[in-house]
Design goal:
By secondary structure, the chain is mainly α. It contains 14 helices and no strands.
């Protein structure tokens, strides 16, 4: 399999790497907005049902063409569907019901480290000192943003049961990233995603039937409809396809470190959409994050 761990970043590749955290930052905002009206399983089912409908016209041909390859790599296909499509999003939506967005962002920032740890343990992937330093620097930038530049905020954080749920979701995403890299690049990512979403929808149906016994879905506001449409199209289809392509081009660790850009985009979106003021600590955190990302993407593995 081709080594992409130190491939050159082109403007196209950089765009692929930055688009997912931008759209996923919006997913956190939209997911929180509808959490009181749409329970976690229903939200996941709606999200991936919409994604399936959006994908179908474009993905049906490569899906049918590559169906033999799905069987050949069936455990990787099933594993990526269960971890990245089904479990990750369901656990995040569930966890956000009992923890803060700040805790969720902090936990989300450990994904690159989990990818590096699991990659080293199971796939003999090794980081250079420069890449590890870049990861740590970008993490400091993340903590600067979410703590509002005040270390006392981090010291006073209280962890709730939802944090454990979200951390399990982060483990799922790390495994998804590594397993996705094991699926050969000649398998079309659009058709592959259609297959993954189909598997997730089949597994979600019994969970939805169970959830309906105790939770009610209410869509009473047009804002909820727009939020659901956003969740079903942008962070689900566009971001997933871009991330899958980026992992193929630059490798799992280098792609995952760009997840640290999520709080940057979250701050920018809050400023633009919610008219929240933009502070100096946010600028400092952003510059630190981008310095760390740049450093992590210049080092070569040992």
């Amino acid at each position: 399999m081709t080594d992409t761990s130190h491939a050159t970043l082109t403007p196209y590749t950089l765009g692929l790497l930055l688009l997912p955290p931008l759209l996923w930052a919006g997913n956190f905002i939209a997911g929180r907005a509808v959490s009181h009206e749409v329970p976690p399983v229903a939200l996941s089912l709606i999200r991936w049902g919409l994604a399936f409908l959006c994908l179908l016209p474009f993905a049906i041909k490569p899906f049918l063409r590559d169906r033999v390859h799905y069987l050949n790599y069936r455990w990787h296909v099933l594993g990526t569907a269960m971890t990245g499509v089904l479990a990750f999003n369901l656990l995040v939506y569930w966890g956000l019901h009992s923890t803060s967005a700040t805790n969720g962002i902090i936990l989300n920032s450990f994904i690159p480290f989990l990818v590096a740890i699991f990659g080293g343990l199971f796939y003999q992937q090794r980081l250079s000192t420069r890449q590890l330093l870049g990861l740590l620097i970008s993490l400091i930038g993340v903590l600067t943003v979410v703590s509002h530049g005040d270390i006392q905020v981090l010291r006073s954080l209280a962890f709730a049961p939802g944090d454990i749920i979200i951390f399990v979701a982060m483990i799922c995403w790390a495994l998804f990233t590594l397993w996705l890299k094991q699926i050969p690049a000649f398998i079309d990512r659009t058709g592959l995603m259609l297959c993954q979403v189909l598997i997730a929808l089949i597994l979600l149906l019994p969970l939805y039937i169970w959830e309906k016994q105790t939770a009610v879905t209410t869509v009473d506001h047009i804002q909820t409809v727009w939020s659901l449409l956003y969740i079903g199209i942008f962070p689900s289809v566009i971001a997933f396809l871009a991330y899958a392509k980026a992992v193929t081009l630059v490798g799992s660790v280098r792609a995952s470190v760009f997840i640290h850009a999520m709080p940057i985009f979250g701050s920018l979106l809050s400023s633009v959409l919610l008219s929240e003021p933009f502070h100096g600590y946010q600028l400092a955190g952003m510059l630190t994050i981008f310095c760390g990302i740049g450093l992590a993407n210049t080092g070569k593995p040992h």
